[in-house]
Amino acid sequence: MEGIQGMNDMGRVIEADRAHVWHHLVQHKAFETADPRVIVEGKGLRVWDAKGKEYLDAVSGGVWTVNVGYGRESIARAVYEQLLKMNYFAGAAGSVPGALFAEKLIAKMPGMSRVYYSNSGSEANEKVYKMVRQIAHRVHGGRKWKILYRDRDYHGTTIGTLATSGQDQRAEQYGPYPEGFVRVPHCLEYRKQWDVENYGERAADAIEEVILREGPDTVGALVLEPVTAGGGVIVPPKGYWERVQEICRKYDILLHIDEVVCGMGRAGAWFGYQLYGVKPDFVTMAKGVASGYAAISCTVTTERVFDLFKQDAADPMSYFRDISTFGGCTSGPAAALENMRIIEDENLIENTQKMGERCLGNLTALMEKHRIIGDVRGKGLFLGAELVADRATKEPADEKLVQQVVAECGAQGVIIGATNRSVPGFNNTLCLSPPLIATADDIDEITGAIDVALTRVFG
């Protein structure tokens, strides 16, 4: 009872948090003079903090996660019932929800075949890196071990995934990093590196140039986000993905699509890569898979990749010798099954498309009103507005002023995001990713708050 009683004493909760909790992505010096924010309840798109303030959450839990919104009793019940029956067994054995969710997931991903469970996006991506390295040893005589990644993309917070961080500030102070991870140029046309007509194809050709420089026989895989998330909500330009796939096939390079953010409807399709007709070898996902109701991530592969790990059953080193302890928790796939049912039954992908168009239209209208907005872009309910000090030169707005816009929206009761401490000099994009259940009124409230905030900060 002591724990339950403590939950009702919010002053005590705040002090316990201040004294003992190490928060993510936060400089704690501020808590010497201000209270940490404690979120205590959520329903739909709304959350309430320990002081009773209500917010409209336009970033789905702060990190693009709560796709179907807060307070879903059916997901909580599915997890509860599963945990009572069977909560955990190591992933060397199967489980009922694990098998059923894998079947349902693969049905949404033509061409893919196998699901490997773990518990975070970082871990899901690490699994791919290990698979690529093991394939290099077993199939290519130790060659084709390098992994290419893109400038401004992000793939996780472990040392291995930070080695593929295209966001230098996130990776700063955590090196040295393991070898064999090589950067390719970004594809943000607004910040284009080449003055050409077919920019998308040219940006993809830059990947081929890196491959030729490194040696095609040394490159095993290319990892890309379908739409770059924390690096500025970058939508690939026309022709980019078609050329990328052509290059990967030409040089026998495995294509790894990181759907940790875009997966499960966020970009207006079940998966972002499906908007571009891409046929990947690996797809990783996490955040929206269970909408934050349980920890789960998935590394999905083709049968061709899977078969490479069972070619020689007599060799004790031939299989994928990996484990994720909490990949054996049944709560993740149980929550994911119900999460997917909700997306289907409530037509949330269709709603995401419609509300995404409305939000993009509202942001475009704001760009006409506020010269501080240099560009708006996005797919589905995953959108960004890049702020600039000067439209002619595209000089980025000061990061501190961008964060003031975020704070002003918060003061109005609307939580938005922004790139911060990620890409040096370019932490100037406001980020929106409300739950897929957003209504037209929700969208208008979000963009209305941004309108007011821009006026307060920039005039």
Separate helix tally: 15
Q: What number of domains? A: 2
Remind me, CATH topology of the largest domain? Aspartate Aminotransferase, domain 2
Biggest β-sheet description? 7 strands, mixed
Whole-angstrom Rg? 22 Å
Strand proportion, as a percent range, falls in 15-25%
* The CATH H-level homologous superfamily of the largest domain: Type I PLP-dependent aspartate aminotransferase-like (Major domain)
CATH top level of the largest domain? Alpha Beta
The chain-level mean pLDDT equals 96
State the distance separating the first and last CA atoms.
52 Å
Architecture (CATH level 2) name of the largest domain = 3-Layer(aba) Sandwich
Which geometry do the CA atoms define?
Answer: globular
Total DSSP E strands? 16
Helix content: 25-40%
Oligomer: single chain
Q: Report strand order across the widest sheet.
A: 4-10-9-8-7-5-6
Low-confidence stretches: 1-5
What structural class results from the helix and strand content?
alpha/beta
Keywords: Aminotransferase, Pyridoxal phosphate, Pyruvate, Transferase
Family: Belongs to the class-III pyridoxal-phosphate-dependent aminotransferase family.
EC number: 2.6.1.77
Enzyme class: transferase
